[in-house]
C-alpha cells in the first residue's frame, strides 16, 4: 500500500512518540511534534485508522499498529540509507543531509532501496549514529545512555545523537565531539550540571548539561 508523503511523515512521528510511552500518544503531542493544528492531526488520524495504520478513538491514547510500525520503519530505513549515500558517495557534510533525505525517503521503490543498501555494503548506522533498520523491519535502538548519565571518572564513546539539527551538528564539529570519540568525565558542576570532559584522552573541555544529554554513549572500561 502506498501512502502519501504526509501520511508517511505522520506515521514516523507517531512511531517515535510511541517509543517514549507504552500507553500511546495524544493528538496534542502529535500536533506539537509535526507543528500543525490539532484539527489537522485529527483528520489525518482518521485517515490512518481507516488504513489500519493506527488505533484511534476520540479522547483516547493513540497507538500505532504493527502494520503502521512497519511502514514507519520502512520510511526511516530509506531516510538513513540516503543519508549514508549523500555523505559517503557525494561528500555532503553530516549537517547537510537531513532535509535532502526527508525528500528522498518518499521514493516508493523497494528494488531501488535494496540495491542502494547493497551498493553501500549494508551499513548498520547512518552518519549520525542512528541504527538503520534491515529490510524486514528489524531495528536495534540505542540504549538511552548519554554523557549526562556518567559519573566522574567514567569513560564512554560517542555512538549517537538525540539532537540532529544542523546547528547542533556544526557545534559538535567545532567542539571535536564527533562519533567514535572517547569521553572521560572529569568533573560535574552541581549548580548547572555542566560537565568537564577529556576527549580522546587529550583535549579538555567543559560542555553544558544540554549538550551532555544529547550525546548517546557506550560505556567503556578503563
Automatic annotation (TrEMBL):
All copies of domain HTH dtxR-type, residue ranges: 1-65
Tagged with keyword NADP: no
Subcellular location: Cytoplasm
UniProt keyword list: Activator, Cytoplasm, DNA-binding, Manganese, Repressor, Transcription, Transcription regulation
Cellular-component GO terms for this entry: cytoplasm
Residues making up the signal peptide according to the UniProt record: none
MF terms in GO: DNA binding; DNA-binding transcription factor activity; protein dimerization activity; transition metal ion binding
Taxonomy, superkingdom: Bacteria
Annotated PANTHER family: IRON (METAL) DEPENDENT REPRESSOR, DTXR FAMILY, TRANSCRIPTIONAL REGULATOR MNTR
Function text: In the presence of manganese, represses expression of mntH and mntS. Up-regulates expression of mntP.
Subunit structure: Homodimer.
Protein family: Belongs to the DtxR/MntR family.
Protein name from the UniProt record: Transcriptional regulator MntR
Lineage, uppermost ranks: Bacteria, Pseudomonadati, Bacteroidota, Flavobacteriia, Flavobacteriales
Amino acid at each position: 500500500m502506498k501512502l502519501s508523503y504526509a501520511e508517511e511523515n505522520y506515521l514516523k512521528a507517531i512511531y517515535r512518540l510511541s517509543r517514549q510511552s507504552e500507553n500511546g500518544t495524544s493528538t496534542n503531542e502529535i500536533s506539537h511534534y509535526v507543528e500543525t493544528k490539532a484539527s489537522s492531526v485529527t483528520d489525518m488520524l482518521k485517515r490512518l485508522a481507516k488504513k489500519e495504520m493506527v488505533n484511534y478513538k476520540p479522547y483516547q491514547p493513540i497507538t500505532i499498529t504493527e502494520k503502521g510500525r512497519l511502514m514507519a520503519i520502512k520510511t526511516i530505513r530509506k531516510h538513513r540509507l540516503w543519508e549514508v549515500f549523500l555523505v559517503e558517495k557525494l561528500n555532503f557534510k553530516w549537517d547537510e543531509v537531513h532535509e535532502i533525505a526527508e525528500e528522498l525517503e518518499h521514493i516508493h521503490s523497494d528494488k531501488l532501496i535494496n540495491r542502494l543498501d547493497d551498493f553501500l555494503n549494508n551499513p548498520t548506522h547512518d552518519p549520525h549514529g542512528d541504527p538503520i533498520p534491515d529490510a524486514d523491519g528489524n531495528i536495534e535502538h540505542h540504549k538511552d545512555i548519554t554523557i549526562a548519565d556518567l559519573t566522574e571518572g567514567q569513560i564512554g564513546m560517542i555512538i549517537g545523537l538525540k539532537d540532529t539539527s544542523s546547528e547542533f551538528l556544526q557545534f559538535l564539529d567545532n567542539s571535536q565531539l564527533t562519533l567514535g570519540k572517547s569521553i572521560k568525565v572529569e568533573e560535574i558542576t552541581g549548580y548547572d550540571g555542566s560537565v568537564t570532559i577529556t576527549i580522546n584522552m587529550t583535549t579538555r573541555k567543559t560542555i553544558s548539561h544540554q549538550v551532555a544529554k544529547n550525546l548517546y554513549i557506550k560505556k567503556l572500561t578503563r
